[in-house]
Amino acid sequence: MRSSTSQAVPRLGDVELTRIGLGGMPLSLGRGRERGLADETVAAALDAGVNLIDTADAYSLDDTEVGHNERLIAHALEAYRGERGPPLVATKGGHTRHGTDWDLDGSPEHLRAACEASLRALGVEAIDLYQLHRPDPQVPYAESVGALRDLREEGKVREVGLSNATVAQLEEAEAIVPIAAIQNELSPDYLAPLDNGEVEACERRGIPFLAWSPLGGMDAAGDGAPAIEVIAAERGVSPQRVTLAWLLSLSPAIVPLVGASRPETIRDSVAATDLRLTEGERTRIAADTPV
């Protein structure tokens, strides 16, 4: 799984995805929030061809503004005046906020209420991709997934996805409702999904593996294998672009969700789709990443 060079286009439902998606979380937190460039960043992403934006109701500073990121994305899409059509918007439910703390509630009652709130925050009649944000150990997984199935049957959700899920949980969920995507962590510093079969499971099914924190997270974005820095200097491109190009080369199912908070960052990330690393470069990077 670490040597694929395929550039096949993954699909979410009937839609062919661009190989890079925009992760909205940094627009509501930290330096990204301080920059205040949500409208400009979303517009730059769309102009560059990105057709998937990922958000979640829990992406907020605290429990007083749950849905902040969804509302931010909705505003940016309404303000967009470019020529691209509307992207798919994915959101998630199942995380809760207590003050600034993160908690879990995968109960059907909470997920239904969270979905209704997300519909209002996004200003849509149906959510393109609704994902169970994280398994709640206090709630049987089948009950949480069953709630998403019900929402899909009611037309409030077009596609159902799982986030932070194992292969076993994917198989359990598939017996309840069609699963359109998996969203798990993947970066040069965290390659477990390649070894535990999560990426391969998506590839076999023809569904996207949406990689969150592909650059290592908001505080570590750009840090990675030393080989990446060297290759970036040799190529005259950013380390982030090399990182994303390498991740894309690992499997045609992988769609990194880049947490950009500036227009130039998402433009550089999308440019990774045109960067073809040599076999030697891929080998150097792989040798410099955790086993």
Keyword list:
291 residues, single chain, 18% strand, 12 helices, two-stranded antiparallel ribbon
Q: Overall mean pLDDT score?
A: 94
Q: Report on the biggest sheet.
A: 8 strands, parallel, barrel
Helical proportion?
Answer: 25-40%
Integer-rounded radius of gyration:
18 Å
Strand order of the largest sheet: 3-4-5-8-9-10-11-12
Q: Got a strand count?
A: 12
Query: What portion of the residues fall into strands of 2 or more residues?
Result: 15-25%
Low-confidence stretches: none
Q: What global shape is seen?
A: globular
Structural summary, described in words:
The chain is an alpha/beta fold. The protein has helices at 30-35, 38-47, 68-79, 108-122, 141-153, 167-174, 192-195, 198-205, 226-235, 239-250, 263-270, 279-287, and strands spanning 11-12, 15-16, 21-23, 52-54, 88-93, 95-98, 101-104, 127-132, 157-163, 179-185, 209-212, 254-258. Helices cover 40% and strands 18% of the residues. Helix 5 links the parallel strand 8 (127-132) and strand 9 (157-163). Helix 2 (38-47) packs across helix 3 and helix 2 runs parallel beside helix 11. It starts with 10 loop residues before the first strand and ends with a helix. The model has no long low-confidence stretch (mean pLDDT 94).
